[in-house]
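Next up, a specimen:

>
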Amino acid sequence: MVEQLVFYALSGILVFAGSMVVTVRNPIHAALFLVLAFFTTAGIWLLLDAEFLAMTLVLVYVGAVMVLFLFIIMMLDINLVVLREGFSRYLPVGILIAVLLGLEIVMVLGPSQFGLDIVPAPAHHGPAYSNIEELGGVLYTVYVYPFEIAAVILLVAIVAAIALSLSGRVKKRRGQRPEEQVVVNPRERVRLVKMAAERPDSETP
């Protein structure tokens, strides 16, 4: 009974946070509501004994991605007046799309496809059960080749992003050279020069 109350409470907060993400005018407030949605989703996953997915959602999305989004939003200095224009004009279309998406979610994720009688809990589910161990066993046995292919694709994407960011300005780029810094004599880093005091031209007799 308590678990169901917690589930409905988290679900209500999640629906509220998701609706505020797409309706609030301030982009910073929208990002903060998205953080709240991620936290409540992680709580629901904890109720489903998916600790690994819950911690991944909090650490990766809330701890890294959303912080990056907030920095980008603050640095872009978005004009809020422009964002408020045309909101009421496109509101009916947005409501229609939201209703269609809701119907599709109900049709795909309904109880007839994902009921507890269709997907029962594993028999070995007990105090020593670890979904991280189960996920790792499936990931590195059944899906080991798709996992490695995805890793190679991400590596190629990282190399391509670095190459694109450095293209056209490699010659102009100034960087440190550690091999030259190591051989420098520490006494030559700072040189004290003694100079005689001089008077300005206006004070010369």
